[in-house]
């Protein structure tokens, strides 16, 4: 048997110069993911189901599993048949009053999809950091409008 | 009006697949003719043995450590240095037609510019950031049309085929399997991995398409234009699925097994066991260190007939490239440009193609992957004499060569030097060594190699990873051991040479890009 695993686990993280509460107010809003995740163009939420549309036109249905404000953990599962298994976890961890660490983990089978999705999550973290630290951007505006 | 440049690349082509380099299987009269008129390099070395890092070296003139594309799946930043931008700034019309692969192909989020350009049918974008802080066409190219190894995905060739010959789209080998791994499926007459009967018409195959589109772009130019055209054939990279109508050119049953293929399992295993352990682990199918190797195929299962068929199909693909190049040369002649066109022909890296019983590529720095075909036919108007150069040169030397042809000073970010015109020129200008590097980190397996080619020796030092502790290495005397069967790393009689080469290797390491670019896709 060859030795490539069928599944893979990929994790990216970024330190953001804003409080965990500030970052969490964006991460916890499943309907605004497309405003800070480059490559996702549309995001529609209905209960615990979310359907995202990618830049390529591909759509992916998801089930939201966890949206825990106490732990500041958001989890979802892509249920598209492209995946045998998928779990995404976004953790927001306070490092200081005005600094947090955001981790975006992707567990998937097939492993190649974990690399593709995981690679995109790094871009999402970079965009989240950019908007949070600039206090400006479409996700910030969406959160502000919601208050 | 200056010299024009036709830069021809293939993908994953061995040195000895050309007649001018001693190959006997494929007929390559066009390339052989260019070699006879120009300069043929006998020790051209890639700075990486996989596509994206190597192609990034061609365009940037930098080693992988410096441009930062350390493995397939790491995207070359859009504002990376580009020799095409330099030529564009100096009045050249610029095009890249065929396989680029500076950015990942697998891109469901449509994040990468080259995939988006193709998807939108755009020739380029004019407002892209350049390394010098200015803006211009994407990576310096006025015109881009992309292709890769089949008809899947958003690239121009796939879209053209789907629009014009949809019945042919499904004829290609499926490069990826249902798990998105590189396919291990065997086919052809022998069940060889990635061999496949492709009933596509030759005229619709990507080799002819690349030539057709190149001719079309050249025809769009004014006769007085200076131009740089990178014509980049996806073949003879696997899958080995040339048009079936052409497969009869080379009967696989008549193919002699290469000397680099030890013909008994015991001999293969003895040779592999003297190399660092990932060689044997891959042969046995217990370790796959990089995505490009079909993960479910075990090299130890390769049969002699399968290898014959791989060589035969590969030879057919090389012949088709030679014929396509011949068509482009005739089109150039018809435009009256014969005297003013430089042609440079090379590939991004080699193919193991049976060496030690292995196929494909990976962290294996031996001649199958490391000795490249490289031919420079200077413009006849430049009156450069024909020559054969056996001193080591690298693909890192291409960008400054293009600058020299264009009469432009090389940029300070280029790490090579214009290719030597003969051995005396090479000696005068210090072409002593070529460096190659490998860094892979995939699904928990990390492998890191640094290699120097110098004085007819190849020496590879291993850095610590998950398979090696950093003490391993390889040392080959290319004169006495042309197939690198005997690893002299631990040979006491070679210890002085080893120490000298290792010291030289570490003394000449290129600057490392920081922060490190992320791996964002499998390929």
Descriptive account of the structure:
The complex is a heterodimer of chains A (147) and B (523). Chain A is 28% helix and 41% strand. Chain A has three helices and seven strands; from the N terminus they run E-H-E-E-E-E-E-E-H-H. Chain A has a seven-stranded antiparallel beta sheet. Chain A is globular. Chain B has 523 residues and is an alpha/beta fold. In chain B, strands 1, 2, 3, 6, 9, 10, 11, 12 and 13 form a nine-stranded mixed beta sheet that branches. Chain B has a four-stranded antiparallel beta sheet with strand order 14-15-16-17. Chain B has a two-stranded antiparallel sheet with strand order 4-5. In chain B, strand 4 (128-129) and strand 5 (135-136) form a beta hairpin. In chain B, helix 7 (206-219) runs parallel beside helix 11. Classes of the chains: A alpha+beta (147), B alpha/beta (523).
Q: Say how many strands of chain B there are.
A: 17
Helix content of chain B: 25-40%
**Low-confidence segments of chain A:** none
Major β-sheet profile of chain A: 7 strands, antiparallel
Oligomer state of the chains in this structure: heterodimer
Question: Which structural traits does this protein have?
Answer:
A: 147 residues, alpha+beta, 3 helices, B: alpha/beta, nine-stranded mixed β-sheet, four-stranded antiparallel β-sheet, 15 helices, 17% strand
Describe this structure in a few short sentences.
The complex is a heterodimer of chains A (147) and B (523). Chain A is an alpha+beta fold and 147 residues long.
């Amino acid at each position: 048997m060859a030795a490539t695993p069928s599944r893979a686990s990929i994790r990216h993280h970024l330190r953001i110069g804003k409080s965990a509460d500030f970052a969490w107010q964006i991460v916890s809003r499943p309907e605004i993911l497309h405003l800070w995740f480059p490559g996702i163009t549309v995001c529609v939420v209905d209960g615990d189901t979310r359907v995202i549309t990618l830049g390529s036109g591909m759509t992916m249905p998801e089930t939201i599993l966890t949206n825990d404000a106490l732990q500041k953990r958001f989890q979802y599962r892509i249920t598209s048949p492209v995946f045998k298994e998928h779990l995404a976890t976004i953790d927001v961890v306070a490092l200081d009053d005005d600094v947090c660490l955001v981790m975006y983990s992707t567990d998937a089978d097939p492993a190649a999809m974990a690399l593709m999705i995981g690679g995109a999550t790094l871009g999402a973290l970079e965009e989240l950091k950019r908007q949070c630290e600039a206090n400006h951007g479409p996700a910030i505006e969406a959160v502000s409008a919601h208050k | 009006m200056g010299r024009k440049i036709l830069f021809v690349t293939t993908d994953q082509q061995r040195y000895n697949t050309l007649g001018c380099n001693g190959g006997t299987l494929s007929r390559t009269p066009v390339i052989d003719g260019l070699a006879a008129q120009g300069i043929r390099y006998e020790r051209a070395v890639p700075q990486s043995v996989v596509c994206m890092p190597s192609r990034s070296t061609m365009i940037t003139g930098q080693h992988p450590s410096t441009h930062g594309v350390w493995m397939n799946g790491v995207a070359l930043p859009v504002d990376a240095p580009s020799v095409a931008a330099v030529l564009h700034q100096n009045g050249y019309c610029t095009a890249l037609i065929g396989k680029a692969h500076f950015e990942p192909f697998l891109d469901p989020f449509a994040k990468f510019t080259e995939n988006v350009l193709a998807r939108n049918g755009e020739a380029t974008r004019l407002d892209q950031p350049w390394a010098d802080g200015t803006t211009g066409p994407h990576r310096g190219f006025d015109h881009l049309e992309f292709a890769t190894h089949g008809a899947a995905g958003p690239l121009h060739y796939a879209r053209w085929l789907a629009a014009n010959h949809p019945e042919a789209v499904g004829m290609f080998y499926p490069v990826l399997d249902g798990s998105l791994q590189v396919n291990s499926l065997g086919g052809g007459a022998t069940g060889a991995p990635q061999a496949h009967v492709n009933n596509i018409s030759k005229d619709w195959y990507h080799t002819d398409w690349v030539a057709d589109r190149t001719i079309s772009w050249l025809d769009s130019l004014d006769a007085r234009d200076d131009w740089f055209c990178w014509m980049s054939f996806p073949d003879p990279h696997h899958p080995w699925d040339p048009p079936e109508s052409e497969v009869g050119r080379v009967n696989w049953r008549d193919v002699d097994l290469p000397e680099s293929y030890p013909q008994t399992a015991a001999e293969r295993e003895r040779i592999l066991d003297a190399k660092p352990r990932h060689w044997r682990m891959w042969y046995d199918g217990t370790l796959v260190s990089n995505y490009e190797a079909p993960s479910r195929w075990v090299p130890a299962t390769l049969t002699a007939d399968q290898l014959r068929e791989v060589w035969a199909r590969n030879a057919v693909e090389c012949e088709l490239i030679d014929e396509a190049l011949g068509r482009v040369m005739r089109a150039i002649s018809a435009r009256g440009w014969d005297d003013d066109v430089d042609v440079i022909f090379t590939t991004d890296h080699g193919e193991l193609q049976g060496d030690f019983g292995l196929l494909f590529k990976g962290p294996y720095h031996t001649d199958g992957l490391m000795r490249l075909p490289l031919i420079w036919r200077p413009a006849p108007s430049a009156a450069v004499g024909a020559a054969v150069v056996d001193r080591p040169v690298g693909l890192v030397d291409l960008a400054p060569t293009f600058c020299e042809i264009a009469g432009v000073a090389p940029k300070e970010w280029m790490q090579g030097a214009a290719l030597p015109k003969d051995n005396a020129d090479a000696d005068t200008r210090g072409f002593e060594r070529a460096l190659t590097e490998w860094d892979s980190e995939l699904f928990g397996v990390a492998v890191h190699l640094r290699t120097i080619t110098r004085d007819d020796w190849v020496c590879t030092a291993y850095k610590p990873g998950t398979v090696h502790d950093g003490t391993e290495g390889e040392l080959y005397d290319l004169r006495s051991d042309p197939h690198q069967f005997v690893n002299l790393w631990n040979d006491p009689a070679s210890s002085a040479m080893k120490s000298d080469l290792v010291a030289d290797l570490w003394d000449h390491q290129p600057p490392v890009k920081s922060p490190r670019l992320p791996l964002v896709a499998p390929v």
